[in-house]
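pasting input
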Amino acid sequence: MLSDLFRKKRKYVTISRDKELKPPITDDAIYEPLEETIEQKSDIQDGLWIKCPDCDEVMYQKELDNNQKICPKCNYHFRLSSIERLAITVDDDSFIELDENMVSLNPLSFPDYEAKLEKARNKSGLKEGVITGEATINGFPIIIAVLDFNFMGGSMGSVVGEKITRAIETSIDKQLPLIIISTSGGARMQEGILSLMQMAKTSAALAKLDQAGLLYISVLTDPTTGGVTASFASLGDIIIAEPKALIGFAGQRVIEQTIRQKLPSGFQRSEFMLEHGMIDLIIDRKNMKDTIANILKMHSRKEEI
Amino acid sequence: MSSDLLNLEKPIVELEKKIEELKQFSIDKEIDLSTEIELLEQKRINLEKDTYSNLSPWQHIQIARHFKRPSFYEYVDHIFEGFIELHGDRLFRDDPSIVGGIAYLNQQSVTVIGHQKGKDTKENIKRNFGMPNPEGYRKALRLMKQASKFNRPIITFIDTPGAFPGIEAEERGQGEAIARNLLEMAQLEVPIISVIIGEGGSGGALAIAMGNHVLMLEHAIYSVISPESCGAILWKDSSKGEKAAEALKITAKDLLNLGVIDDIITEPLGGGHHNPEQLMGSVKKALISHLDVLKEYSKEKIVEHRYNKFRKMGLF
């Protein structure tokens, strides 16, 4: 049950993030959220106190946790693990996980991939970068997939692609709306071309969902980039983002290097995406569940007005 | 760019030079050296065969990116008849880095779409080095839907370093444009054949490469990330591209083994640019034979076939 999951894995949830700075990427399906890694350096490490990367306010970790990880001063939305996200999104005790035991192989025998997977499992307490399942939101039954940035940057390899595709197929089988909450650096480099093919696979499955006349709500959280932006994350009937989330296709450093000019402030943030017509709305974390429920209600087939 | 290729070709070029010198010497001094010359010729042929049959992934990349490698328009000219280019996405502008139109392939009318790189600096600027903006993908989608309406098969040619990373591209939804193409291509009721002719650069390539059959030239590459960038990320060193090229499995042979492509088209010795006409002949033959198979499928079967093909992708 969800509440069990939540308690069990709570100890893995820490605010301090990967500290190593990585060089930029010049390829489109893979995105390295460089800016985010810089941001993370300002975190206070002892786990008791935490500093908001946006407004520099120092607060108790516990205070932040009790506030859905939103800065009480400036409304900055800290990243959530998939377990935390599920806990604030679906009804208590409603979540039944799908394909919970699917794990990645190393199909290309890519150097150090197994070690990286092991590290990601330890860091996140998860088997892979996405959790999928059936649940209810304010009583409305749905199929939901939640990506997790703590697992290799939420990158999409064969397993993430397969679990999402199966979630879509389950939506069709059970005639239920689909919700995917994305956070991802893009395709998973260590699975090479097979990662790229997951973009085609998930998008093709969404075409079937479309034809079945079922609702798909895509929720974009910080960061949603690369091959995930270039596939299922951009294909929602309704696309909702959290405030100030980094949402884009190509990496910022890569763009700067290509066009040899500084990027405007707020570039590739939720507000930028809204302004350019790429998303439907921006919703604060605290209102997300009720907003999704309202939309579900409006699409409910048994709805009686 | 092609320094590795030159290294690769150097011993062959040197041997050719030696043969020439010997020929000249034999003429000048009026000595019969035909046996020696013939021996050296044979040696050259063997050396060429050896060199090109054992290429590393990195060397394949050098050939795939060779500035003399035939580009999309050359395929159109040699393989199709009566090509009429159709422009624009009807939303923003005409993107010159993706070209499309209608033509005949062996008396069958088809829609042809491909990435277009430039042959020189001036053309490369015009074509943005074959890196499309969202409007390029939206033009391609418009033409593909048109093809579906008129029941024309679609042939796509892939040759791009990737989708363009730029401010305006992001503003106009580069990610959405690619995603939309994938979703829509999955539903098209006409056969799609995609041929990777040079660089298959990540999502920017895939966005027009969801074919029922995906074919690949012998020296073409297809990858989720350029080996240089991969090396830069993994080993903090962009000169580790050669190592990354091995790890990423990007050659036609690798991709055939992984089930990502359906067929490899053999190139003339040394790469397509050594004998474009021979290359075009091989590509045309392959297209016709693959189309002959797919033409027999009903609309439902075409969609189902393509869906099943991509549904199976991935190993876990």
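fyi Chain A is about 35% helix and 15% strand.
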